[in-house]
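cache lookup: miss for this entity combination. No prior model stored, computing from scratch. Input as submitted by user K.M.:
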Amino acid sequence: MAEGGDSADGHSVTRSTYSATEAGESAGPARKIWGWLDDRLGLSALRYKVPEHANTIWYTLGGITFVGIIVLAAIGIWLAQFHDPDPAAARQSVLFIQNSAPLGDVVRRIHIWTAYLVIVTASLHLIRIFVTTSYKAPREINWIVGVVLLAPLMFDAFITGTVLRWDQEAYEALAHNMELATIFGAFGGFFSEDFTTSVSILPRLYIFHVSIVPLLLVFFLIAHIFLIKHHGISPTAAQEEAGEAPGGRLPPEKETGSYATHLRKMVGYGLVLLAFAGVLSVLFPQPIGSAPDPTVEVTKPLPIYYGLYSFDDCFGVLGILYGAIALFGLLALVLFIDRTPLRSIRRRPVMLVFGVVLLIALAVLSYHRVQPRRITHGRLGTAK
Amino acid sequence: MKAGFARVGTLVLLILALSPGLALAHGERGVTVEPLTPKPDQTITVNGELLGPNSEVEVRVIGNGMNMSLGEVKADEEGDFTEKFRLPANLKPGTYQIEATGKESATTQITVSGAPAGGTEADSKAGAMGKTPVIEQRPLGQSISLVALFGVLAALGLYFARRPVRKAWGHPTIRRSGMQGLIARLFRERDEGGVAYEPVAGARDPEEGEA
């Protein structure tokens, strides 16, 4: 049972090395429990080596995002016990969560703020990868998987999560969703009200929010984590340029950190994220708006990542589609634009300008969208 | 060259595969309504397509025990029409089918919400569908306590993430027991001081497991 093996690439694969019995009769109860658990769950396998820099905050952002997603799922389970997606009862159930459910107001707000913060940490994680060139060979596919992961995450926060509140902003988000669905024609059918008359669009979006998107996230997260494990934590730009990482991975003798530390930092900073969301939820409660009025559009979404909606002002609802295609398309194009072997961001002026321009564009669009506006129209829910 | 043909071929196949779906997106029989979440007594615009050339189309609202005609309209030579109808004032909140029947028939779904469109201000402020929802605020003391609680959680998280590992915990000759030992073993780190407890004789330390 005391085994530690090496994989084909020379990186250690450790299994349980200690057991309660082997640890001796004098072992304390905690050690015995640990040994018992370790034998059965292989927890020692988490002690594998990683590069030292993997345990810095910048290389822990992905893990913090992962913990945030777990928090969202856990809180979501609680909220689901009180939310009724039936259109006639949805708003009443949201108000029940807010006013009557045990800690419902706090939990609901933490759910929303955690979603915002997870988008922020995911974006910072993406920026870190961009700056440290971790998307280069052999990690190109994982970059794409990460970009794809961002899409359902944003979709759940952008549209489905907002719609479930079933107030004015929710109605407008639903209207945007349905307009986009109509634009997609046959491919948008699943999201459109015409897809079926047996179930209203609101329960179907609820299913999307609590079931389909989480399943997609799980699927892509498994792929993402598997590829990280397969390729190892990426070396720093300096290590790459010094030729210390042949094949894009540090040799085992230079991986001097421990994944146990990484895991601890993930959980620790994840708790900080949760606490921060909690404080924000008390200081800046997420309001529940008025009942939907289909004749006006008054939504003024939060900044942070709502820059995409600025395209809506310029091009109508199609603009959201253009914005999403532009953002995700540019992120995918990074692989093809940056073909140099250089790693340091200072030596990649084109990519530096590319990244800065993208960030400034998002910031300007977000600021533009935050400005107050009131549009009166009667076309919500249709595509022209 | 072959790769180029393969790409073009794949593209053509994709377009051919998707074209039936695209064709269905246009010219389908159907009916649409706006707004999709009207109030009782509100005027809705019903648009029908391909319900039979020049046919008399009857529009009905069906659901929640109600099956009522909203009116009739004459379709054009393609079977299309657009007409405004007023919903009954006594519709209860809920989901209804709007059925348009000419020579052909089609239905769609609306969700009726709230009080009648012309309701009083008092009506509109009351209940879940009111313009101004009633939100109960937590007392200030509870809010302060919550912030303090989250502050403690953040401090715990920071300590957990950044705590320095005492060298003694990781010294191979010092045995720890109880919770301290468990934590040491859980988060034993090679980069922070080596093994935290004694290895079994003859066994390889997982941290030293490289061949």
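stored under new cache key. The two ends of chain B are 48 Å apart (CA to CA).
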